[in-house]
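Morning run. Coffee first, then this:
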Amino acid sequence: MPDWAAAYDTETARLDALLQDFGDAEWHAPVRLRWFRGDEATSRRTTVAGVIAHLLSVDGLVAVALGLDDPLGDVRSRQPTPAARTEAYWSASHFPPTRAVRAPWREQSHNLVRTVSFTGGGVGGLPVPYGDFALPLHDAMLDRAFECWVHAEDIADAVDYPYDPPSPRHLHRMIDLAARMLPDALAERRRGGLAAPAHHRHLVAAGEPGRSLRLEIEGSGGGEWLIPLDSPAAKGSAEHEVAHVALDGVEFCRLAAGHVPPQEEAAGQVGDREAIKDVLYAAASLSRM
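And here it is:
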């Protein structure tokens, strides 16, 4: 199995273990999916079974990219986005999802891991379209591992079960993916007028160092990342550091999942306040249904 698929394999197995003893009451327990849209928190009410249907639908993006069956079958979604696919799957069901959704979800997760393992990891660069953006397969598998953990926590909270974070090695990979996505997320918010304009006097050519924020992640899975502020094409640079933010690893992931407000985050903040605010909100904007 490729290293980049291990987190998904582990997280789907952990969630399946959580589900195995659930009775009807747990499967129909209410769950509120939460994410950030623009500058505001938003949510969608469903059930434990509805969450598994959501994971099945969105993991299907990876399945389709690999040439496997689409779990939506003949159902058509308005757009090939995670939210649209989920709504299409939910709407096509004559009844709300039940425990029966566990088997196709688990079979698909096994098939994804088996397929990438058979390739020897050589398909890691295969693009996986998410509708309005795409990720290479090795990042898409990490993204799906992250979502699996986040929603497993949602389920565990709904039924009052304990649930641990991923292992430090897997958590670090998830944090690294989010950190690498931050420059593009920041640029997207800037284009939408939701972040301060780039400092044009500091704009640099692609690959050159530019103004940067040091993201320090403490605790399990931690590390440091230099986030370029003015262009996704710029290179993070310690010499051009204008701000420093320190966050706990699990809390950073909850921020990136849209589960905590950006204004409440960061144990330590030093430097350009505007840059800090923009990066924290960009992290929250990584979240989606």
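The mean pLDDT is 92. Good start to the day.
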